[in-house]
Amino acid sequence: MIKFDMEDLTKIFVFLEKLFPNSSEEINIFDIGSRDCEEAIEFSKKFHNAKIFSFEPNPDAIKIAKKNISSFKNITLVEKAVSNMNGAVDFYPIDPELTETTHEDGNIGASSLFKASGKYPLEKYVQNKITVESITIEKFCEDNGIETIDFVWMDLQGAEYLALKSFGELLSKVKIIHTEAEFFEIYENQYFFKDIQNLLNKTHFLIHGDRKHNLFSNFIFIKKDFFLMFLIEFIKYNFQSTFVNLKIFLKPLKIIKRIPKKFFNFFKF
After folding, report:
1. What is the value of pTM for the model shown?
2. What pLDDT score was predicted for residue 260?
3. What is the C-alpha radius of gyration for the chain, rounded to an integer number of angstroms?
4. Which DSSP string do the residues of the chain spell out, in sequence order?
């Protein structure tokens, strides 16, 4: 539902580049609830040797995604929902013509495995009901010989918890997860931030940047083993950005020449 945040992407890219300094190294990225595959394309541009698996069950979104990724050979579109079940499940795609929203596409990204509650104050969703195929991440990885997942980007409109449960033992091998989570009942019988946090805490993930508000937000969870590395790289990135801006500001004042170059070089990485 939330348009992807370039600030979040930058944080994750900085971390992954440190974790995988060899540009030819293969990494596995799972984009779950991909809608139009815009995020997958950003991942592909940054990590040319990554294997990116984008999961999307909505027929309207699939048409757009296929067109968008036609020239990106390292993105595989999986036309299935992800949940804790394998097989046919009910799915509720947004009717873009009847839904009341400011999104030009009718906000098809608000489609869900759950029916809208009607309580969301900012939009009025009209959904259809269809049957789609669902798969667990555990089964998908077994079928495709995937042993590790490095990075997960997820937006499932209240069903994120079900997807995380579907990882099975593989969840312990994931390094970083970016996910949307709700605090407000947008969908009937949906899962909330607390459900996701409790599950990931048990699997030794720590949260970075809790940007909580009344309805929903995006969150980054990092495996405990890599959390310190993430923070160090993030701090270095922020310092670098700050001093680049400082140099631009000071240059017209001719103060920049008085500051030793090694002072700025310290923050390069």
Report:
1. 0.84
2. 54
3. 20
4. -PPPPHHHHHHHHHHHHHH---TT---EEEEES-TT-HHHHHHHHH-TT-EEEEE---HHHHHHHHHHTTT-TTEEEE-SEESS--EEEEEB-B-TTT-B-S-TT--GGG-BSS-B-S--SS-B--B--EEEEEE-HHHHHHHHT-----EEEE--TT-HHHHHHTTGGGGGG--EEEEEEESS-SBTT---HHHHHHHHHHTTEEEE-----SSEEEEEEEEHHHHHHHHHHHHHHHHHHHHHHHHHHHGGGT-GGGS-HHHHHTT--
Q: What is the pLDDT of residues 203-216, one digit of tens each?
A: 999 998 656 567 99
Positions in the chain short of pLDDT 50: 2, 243-250, 252-253, 255-256, 262-264, 266-269
DSSP-derived pairing of the beta strands 87-91 and 81-82: unpaired
State the Cα–Cα distance between residues 232 and 13, nearest whole angstrom. Answer: 14
Q: Return the closest-CA partner of residue 137 out of 150, 149, 124, 123.
A: 149
Q: CB within 8 A of 102, min separation 6: which ones?
A: 123
CA 134, CA 166: separation in Å to the nearest integer?
11
Nearest to 29 by CA among 166, 158, 176: 176
